[in-house]
Amino acid sequence: MCIRDRMLVGPTGGGKTTCYETLRNAITALHCKNPETYYNISIDVLNPKAITLGELYGDISNDTQEWRDGLASKLIREAAKDLSEEHHWIVFDGPVDSLWAESINTALDATNALCLANGQRIKLHNRIRVLFEVQDLADASPGTVGRCGVVHVAENTVSWMAYVQSWVQRTFRTEEVLNKELKEMVLNLF
Question: Contact 118/73 with Cβ under 8 angstroms?
């Protein structure tokens, strides 16, 4: 069995988002030089704990009695319909719990299909990846964790000084505002 999906585990501000964005940027840049081997990647990020299960996966409208897709099912359905060579990464950024994570288990296992409450199945082709960006796996079920590769980003992987250096580089791009000596002086204040 080939594990296609990943869990990035680590503290807030630890660099998890930067890890997958850097990987996406590198693969996309390589695509420009070698389009037969590499590919473009689009990323959609959602917080599953910020919305209800119905808003996440879909539910029946009380007014019309018709099915309406939720955010995750809509993103996955659109990615599944895409016939281009572009890859799609759907990122669930938030705590994993059994309430919402169990519903996506079928998309992570060998069937590679998201099963919805209305009986529909959305087949995930090999260009769709599911990523989980979480602080810990305390409330994740073994079934969900076992279907994913886990990448641990340690708390000290990215120090706070990296944020300061990045801020100085972005804020003072030209030497008209702050020359090299003054940039070093500002960095030494930290």
Answer: no
Checking if the pLDDT of 2 tops 80, the result is no
Q: Is the CB of residue 137 less than 8 Å from the CB of residue 145? A: yes
C-beta separation of 118 from 80 below 8 A: no
- Inter-CA distances, 36 with 25, 30, 40, 135, Å: 17, 10, 11, 36
Among positive and negative, which fits the CA dihedral 7, 11, 12, 16? negative
The vertex-22 CA angle with 40 and 92, nearest 5°, equals 80
**pTM for the structure as a whole:** 0.81
Inform me whether the pLDDT recorded for 122 exceeds 60. Answer: yes
Q: How far apart are CA 189 and CA 153, in angstroms?
A: 28
CA distance 105 to 115: 9
Q: Are 39 and 27 in contact (CB under 8 A)?
A: yes
Q: What is the DSSP string of 89-129?
A: EEEEES---HHHHGGGHHHHSTT-EEEPTTS-EEE--TTEE
What is the spatial distance between Cα 118 and Cα 141, in angstroms, rounded to a whole number? 24
